[in-house]
Design goal:
Nucleotidyltransferase, domain 5, about 100 residues, globular
Length: about 100
């Protein structure tokens, strides 16, 4: 689990160079991002040096904003409805 989350954080950090800076927020979404406080914690902790500071209580409650007040960057949990997106895309293709 630690290696998996480290690789996610490493990949996220690799995008900071082409973005020419650290983004204002990171977003956890879909199955893993929405339903795994442990994975969000491990990834966020690996990115803490970039200003992403997690509030553990908010993280455990799956709140929308899970960064703490001292965090210079936001950490968000945004629910998705992948099935709805697929259905809408399919409808557009068959019209």
């Amino acid at each position: 689990m630690e290696m998996f989350c480290y690789k996610i954080a490493k990949t996220m950090a690799s995008y900071f160079v082409p973005l020419e800076g650290i983004p204002d927020a990171i977003v956890f979404t879909a199955g893993i991002g929405e339903r795994s406080p442990l994975k969000r914690k491990l990834v966020s902790n690996a990115l803490k040096s970039f200003g992403f500071d997690l509030d553990q209580e908010k993280n455990e409650k799956n709140e929308l904003i899970i960064s703490n007040q001292q965090s210079s960057k936001k950490i968000l949990v945004i629910p998705t409805n992948e099935e709805l997106v697929i259905a809408n895309e399919t409808l557009e293709l068959i019209k």
